[in-house]
Amino acid sequence: MVDFAGWSMPVQYDGLMKEHERVRRRVGLFDVSHMGELFFRGAGALETLDLLATQHVATLRDQQALYTPLCNQDGGVLDDVLVYRVDARRFMMVVNAANVDKIARWSKQHLAPDTELEDASDRVALLAVQGPRSRDVLQRVHALGAWASQLERLEYYHFLGDGQGDILFLSRTGYTGELGYEIYVRPDHAVRLWDEIVAAGEAFDLGPAGLGARDTLRFEVGFCLYGHELDEDVSPLEAGLGWTVKLDKGHFLGRSALAEQKERGVPRRLIGLATQERAIARAGYPVQSGGRAVGAVTSGTFSPTLQRSLAMALVEREVPDESWSVVVRGRDVPMRRVRLPFHKPSPAP
Question: Residue 69: is the preceding peptide bond cis (ω within 30°)?
């Protein structure tokens, strides 16, 4: 157990490698209740969120979610979040734990008229069931009631629920790249739900997974982690998230800076690197090309699935793809550039 943004969080239960493989091959269960939940309500809720988000929130339908960065006026990322549309007047924003207070304060500064913002983070627990057998497990969980029979038809980035009852929402989302679901539940019901999921998962070798496996799983599929690939001095365009920046939707916070950056060309780009050596390029290690420093590693680890050392790095845009290295504990480790994501799981049905 470690301190993580003020929460006591499990790094691992029965071993990072075992937990990682379990999620890739079968199914794992994560407690991610540290994530923050902000509720936007009222006639101005949609207008507010479309101002805050780089994505086009107005395109959402009821029971649909989207992933979006939130940017400052300079185009740097304040956080990357999920936005859920319950209906035209009710939305939920899921925020990274370390950024809850920051995003709540920032959002309140930009509320449209007739908009209420509630920070419900302490009143919402979050369980994530991830892996190819996740649907099979949840179809056996009696606490989900009629929802269990609807999972077969639930599309990616869609959800069930209206925020009422013990289980608030069940969404087909996750941070692993595998088929998976996230369940937003009232804290006093979370332990019972966890126990029922564990019991239903026995036939599928379900087990709990911690922060360690969560990080290696998201890393392999190229998902950004705030504080690593994303930060207030990194734009979504630099981080390879250009698809989330909808310049044609009209005004939003950071739009002018992002439009200018897109026109001029990004000064940096996020790339993937690999080495045949066992050395691990950790976050912050210098990246070199042609004998000079051109950037730094944002995330790096030994990939349990691919069985080699990999890294994501933010580097100067114009560096040719010829010779790369990372300085690992004072030693130059040769690297070669590889395409992101490092791993593509089999498409989920």
Answer: no
